[in-house]
C-alpha cells in the first residue's frame, strides 16, 4: 500500500492472483517476481493500481467541543473503515423531534442528484427540521451557526467519497444555551362581561427560549392581582370586579424560569347599576354652612364616577342643585340660619346608571335677626293702636318672638312679647289700654330661641282725642 510500510506477499503457481482483503480508495504498489526451483528471484516487475471507491465508514468520536446560544463547534475522528475514501465531510443538522424532510420535498427544492440529497432515514426516531443545504468541509471539525437558542438540535456527520458517495452517518445531539426569552409582540385585553377579561397575545416574530407565559391582571387602584402561567396564547380571567381598570401584563418565561420583558395593556370591566350612597350624615352645622359626609354604595361601588346632589329648604319651593362631585364629603354654604333643609344625594355611573336618593334633614344654627322692616300703624283710636311690620331681612327664621316696647309723654309705658307661628312675612298686633291725645313711641325687635335680641325698629304716633 502506497505511503504505508505494511506489505503482504502471495505465492502462486499460475500467472494470475487475487489480492484480498484490500482497502478501498487506496493506491497499491505491486511487485511481481519469478522464483526458480532453487528459490532465486528474478528482477522485479513493478506496477501501481487503485482499489475502487466505496462508501466511507462512519466517523469516530463525534463530539461537541463548545457551544453557545447560537453556535455549536463539532469535531470527529476518521472512520475505522474506508477512511481513505473520505474526500470531504458532509454535516447536516436540524431541530430534534420534528419529522425529517422527505425525498420528494428535497427534490422539490432543486436537489435532483442522488448525491445531493440529505438522507436521514433509519435514525431510530430522531428527526428534525433538517436543512437541505448540508455543510461540506475537508476538516475534521466545523462550527455551525446561526442556530436558535434553547433549541434541541441533532447533527449528522458523514464522509463523502471523491465521486460523491455518502458514507455511514454518526449522530450527536445537544440543547442550545439559553438567552433572555423573546417578548410578545402585542397583547390585547378584551372585556367579556362586567366580571371577566379575555387576554390575547401574539408571540414575537422570531421567538426564542419561551416555554410558557406569566399572565397577570392587576387592579391599578387596590393593586389586587391574579396571575396564571400558561403555554397557550390566550387566557380568560373570571371573578373580577365590575367597573375596574385592570393593568394586564404578559411576560415570557424561559426553560430555566428566567422572566423576559413584559408587554402591557389596560382594560376596564363593564358598567353595572349601583345603589344609593351609605352612611349619609351631617357632621358640622353653623348658621350658614353645613358639612355633609357619606360613604360609597354597597352595590358595585367602583362603578360610581360621580354623585348628584340636591338641597331643598323647607317652606320654599326652591330646589338648589349643587355641582356634581366625586368626593365623599361636601360643604354646603350660603344657607339661611334657623332653617330646615333636606339634603339629597344619588350615585351616577359612567354609562349613566343612577341610584335612588339618600336624604338627611338638618337645621342650621341661630344668628341674630335684623330689625323688623317697615314698622307702621294701620289704625288709631283714643286708647289703642294697630301696629304692622314685616319680618327681618336678615335671618328672618330666627325670629322666635317679637318684643314690643312703647313709651309716652305721660309715662304710659309698656312691653309685650308675642309669638307668631309659622313665620308669616307680615305681622299685625293691637296694643290696647293707651291714653287718648298722647304721643307714643313704639319699638319692635326680633328675639331668637336662645334669647338673643336683634336691633329694634321704631315708630312714633299719637292716639286720638
From TrEMBL:
<feature type="domain" description="Fibronectin type-III">
    <location>
        <begin position="276"/>
        <end position="367"/>
    </location>
</feature>
<feature type="domain" description="Fibronectin type-III">
    <location>
        <begin position="183"/>
        <end position="274"/>
    </location>
</feature>
<feature type="domain" description="Fibronectin type-III">
    <location>
        <begin position="368"/>
        <end position="465"/>
    </location>
</feature>
<dbReference type="InterPro" id="IPR003961">
    <property type="entry name" value="FN3_dom"/>
</dbReference>
<dbReference type="InterPro" id="IPR013783">
    <property type="entry name" value="Ig-like_fold"/>
</dbReference>
<dbReference type="InterPro" id="IPR050991">
    <property type="entry name" value="ECM_Regulatory_Proteins"/>
</dbReference>
<protein>
    <recommendedName>
        <fullName>Fibronectin type-III domain-containing protein</fullName>
    </recommendedName>
</protein>
<dbReference type="InterPro" id="IPR036116">
    <property type="entry name" value="FN3_sf"/>
</dbReference>
<keyword id="KW-0677">Repeat</keyword>
